[in-house]
Amino acid sequence: MMHSIERMSSFNRSVSFKQRAANTRKSWVARLFRALIAVGSLVSFFLAIGCGYLYVLPNLTHAFHDHEFIFSNSNDTTNTCDIFDGNWVLDDSYPLYNASECPFVEQGFNCLANGRVDEDYLKWRWKPKNCDIPRVNVQHALETFRNKRVAFVGDSMSRTQWESLICLLMTGVEDKNSVYEVNGNMITKQIRFLGVRFSSFNFTIEFYRSVFLVQHNWAPKNVPKRVRSTLKLDKLDDISKEWIDSDVLIFNSGQWWVPGKLFRMGCYFQVGKSLRLGMSIATAFRTALRTWASWVDNVINPEKTRIFFRTFEPSHWRNLTLRECNVTKFPLSEIEGQDFSPFSETVFDVVNNMIVPVTVVHITPMSAFRSDAHVGTWSDRPSLSDCSHWCLPGVPDIWNEILLSYLLTNKEDTFE
């Protein structure tokens, strides 16, 4: 009996030891499994960070430093050049085209045809400090745009630049009749879409009127009587689907973000279904621009489309309330703070946080000198002075020279 108890006790100890050993092995395997999961997660995390660094950092660098070019200077050495840091110099080889020979210049912008006598404003070229902007090779530009689609999106300043580029490129086309507006429309400020086709080269240069970039709608129900319409700051303009497949997109906005064209017209801001009566224009502009940036990051294919955003264009009013203009004979020697615009600064802030590369064409400082180049009273409505818009030929031609320099000069910036 005693031996039976001892054998049973020994057996129990053996079973207990085996169970403990099995439990120990299971515990060790579980710990190993958890460790492998942790290591795998850590490796995946660092891989994700690394890939994000490789993808995002170049784009941020692109956004911060896109104003720097590498051109050859007069001594055939290379310098990094900030093309927006410079001054205006006289150049008798300007203007780049004759507005009266270009059917796509609005009558209101052809200042010479509208009675302006002095031609000095036509003869100024922008000269960066450390380099020269290459003179446009029109034939090269035409061939580069072959089979492409270029679209300007914005307000009337964008339309002026659109007209300028068409006239500049037309100087290289032998058969002027091969260049035409695709719907047979006259160039007017009311039309939301204008497209000019260069049939010999199979490309179009288009303009989409979208002054706020976001949706502008009639006011919703049950709002204060003073609210006649709203800007839906979280909804991009409903014509944005037309922009997607462009090869080059040039955006601008700013001139309409003022009380006279918003609150005094009964236009207020809306986010979702919420009316934001107390929101400032600066906050609303930033919100709208972030909506635009989100659309670009999520919809645009940067392998196909090159994107530009042109900054705010300074005006030169003596008294805006009285519509008194201050058109001078020569460019200003001092710009007295007009080189700064909160709209331009917001553009930089938003673009610098985007994923898709966007080139900011910072024309605010250079244009601030050009009080001599506005339409003034030399428009199709001479009773109304205009110190916001520009004569053609004129300052917008320089914006296009810079645009074409980005597209045609730097291999890393080309869209070919």
Structural commentary:
- By secondary structure, this protein is of the alpha/beta class.
- It has two domains: 1-65; 73-413, no CATH class.
- 32% of the residues lie in helices and 21% in strands.
- The chain has seven helices and 19 strands.
- The protein has helices spanning 2-65, 138-145, 156-170, 281-299, 342-351, 364-368, 395-408, and strands spanning 68-72, 78-82, 86-90, 124-128, 149-154, 179-181, 193-198, 203-209, 214-218, 229-236, 248-251, 267-271, 274-276, 306-310, 317-319, 324-325, 358-361, 374-376, 386-390.
- The strands form six sheets. The chain has a seven-stranded mixed sheet with strand order 6-7-8-5-11-14-17, with helices on both faces. It has a four-stranded mixed sheet with strand order 9-10-12-13.
- The protein is globular, with a radius of gyration of 31 Å.
- It starts with a helix and ends in an 8-residue tail after the last helix.
Q: Sketch the major β-sheet.
A: 7 strands, mixed
For the largest sheet, list the strands in their spatial order. 6-7-8-5-11-14-17
Helix content: 25-40%
What is the first-to-last residue Cα distance?
98 Å
Q: How many whole angstroms does the radius of gyration measure?
A: 31 Å
Number of strands: 19
Total DSSP helices: 7
Count of folded domains: 2
Mean pLDDT: 85
Poorly predicted ranges (pLDDT <50, ≥5 residues)?
Answer: 1-26, 45-65, 70-77, 411-416
Shape: globular
Supply the helix-strand structural class.
alpha/beta
Strand content: 15-25%
Order of helices and strands: HEEEEHEHEEEEEEEEHEEEHEHEEH
GO molecular function: O-acetyltransferase activity
Membrane topology: Single-pass membrane protein
InterPro entries: TBL, TBL_C, TBL_N
Main location: membrane
